[in-house]
Amino acid sequence: MLSKLKQRENGDTIVEVLISLAILTAVLVGAYYTANESFRNDRDSQEHTEALTIAETQLEDLRTAGTISASDQCFNSSGVAVSSCYIPTGNTTQNLTQQQCKSLVGSYCYSVDISNYATVQYNVPSTTPAIPITLNTYEVNVTWTGLSGASDNVSLYYRQDQS
Question: Pairing with 141, which of 21, 38, 55, 114 sits 20 to 30 Å away (CA)?
Fold first, then answer.
């Protein structure tokens, strides 16, 4: 009788094997989901950092140039205002047309638009005669299609006074 009990305890039953496979599957699915979310968050952070760098470069060019005309949308790598502003991944200064940018393999495009967000004119009351001051607020908007396929953007504002 004792030998029959020992024979039964030698191996795993099919139920035990199925339970262990279910537990292993749940752990692997959880690890995959966590790694995938980590990758997405990392890529989203990289996209935002690159867009912010592009916007800061454009603001610096705007500060140097002093103004931008209504027909222009951004600055090229030479700091000259231009109307077409598509910047490929990994390059914060190269401006292309939308078609050129989209034709690059393994890259996607950031669209840049600088607009005069607001203009305020007032006279400084503490001076005689009153000194007129114009405050121009510019918005630099960088837009791109993210990894998820949704459109995303970064906007920076720059206020410039002209007395």
Answer: 38
